[in-house]
Amino acid sequence: MRQYHHPDRDNISLTDVLYGLSDPTRLQIVKMLATKKEITCGEFCLEMSKSTQSHHYKVLRDTGIMYTRLEGTQHHNSLRREDLDARFPNLLDAILHSLD
Questions:
Q1: Over residues 91-98, mean pLDDT
Q2: Which of 16, 57, 63, 75 has its CA 20 to 30 A from that of 69?
Q3: Which helix (H) or strand (E) holds 78?
Q4: What is the CB neighbour count within 10 angstroms for residue 16?
């Protein structure tokens, strides 16, 4: 089964997180993740090709913003809030608040 790369908490950098959050689609994904514990890829209901969605998910995983857990054929995605808050206190809350 395919495994995804998730950087360790200590390897999450501010510049990577800001890059991950620099796209409106990725911000939309993060906002949805912040409202639920886990969301499968199909629950996001993004109106774009699967390859484009996959690209955004990969960027969010690689930058340490999102965690993807595989269960059978389902990809369960969650926000790495605890890790992000430990590395950059209040950053995620400030960004999410600015989206409201």
A1: 94
A2: 16
A3: strand 74-79
A4: 16
Range of 54's domain?
9-99
How many domains, the chain? Answer: 1
pLDDT band at 1 (very low <50, low <70, confident <90, very high): low
Question: What's the CATH number where 27 sits?
Answer: 1.10.10.10
Residue 2 in any domain: the answer is no
pLDDT in tens, 7-51: 999 999 999 999 999 999 999 999 999 998 899 887 877 888 888
Domain membership flag for residue 1: no
